[in-house]
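Review form for a predicted model. The reviewer records the input and the model, then writes brief findings.
Reviewer: anonymous (R2)
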Amino acid sequence: MADTSKLRIPDIAIVKWRNIADLLAKLAGVPAATINIIEEDSVRVIGQKSRDSAAGDGDHISLQKGLKVYCAAVIESREKLIVPDAGKSAFWKDSEGAKAGYLAYAGVPIFQPDGEIFGSVCIFDTKPNQFDGTIVRLMEEFSEIITGHLELIAKNISLEATLKEVRTLQGLIPICAQCKKIRDDKGFWQKVEVYLEERSNARFTHGLCEDCMQKLYGKEKWFKEKDK
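Model under review:
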């Protein structure tokens, strides 16, 4: 299966995930929800705020600051995190998230099919929020849906690679009627095993069929006596 940490996520999947974030924010009644993807040197953010939110550019910047600290905790711990009121938390009250105005946060990790961390699903609120258990459960379901998407994407990539290999062996293949060498697209004649190994994952081991053994050694005394 393809390595999901290096997958190019199709645009249609990104659109679906952004819709999930928008819907999640609306259902939770919060100003912001995001799906965050770990990339090589950064975290890619999908979905910045709910469609009903009146947040402006300044709020967008504040959300980015809050996201870095809250979501980083989920990704690093690989566990669900709920902060009902950062202002009353000795740990969170001086965090960048609280300073940015996001006092409540809920986030769940997203995993790749192989169990490695992929990112997180997060919701933010500018006021204290206990986050109803149904909302958190919905976030967990969304996380599992994304993991399923990743598995399908990886399988499609593997299938496309297999089909590409098959296509290279389709059509008319020029083969010598005498020596059985194959002419490649550059005009060079190659042994059958060399031609196929260069265009597939096949590897050859050599032996002799019964007809060739009879042709080569049929008159030898040791050969005639080997089956007696």
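Findings: Confidence is low (pLDDT under 50) at residues 50-62.
Further findings: The helical segments are 11-28, 57-77, 96-99, 133-167, 192-199, 210-217, 221-225.
Recommendation: see findings above.
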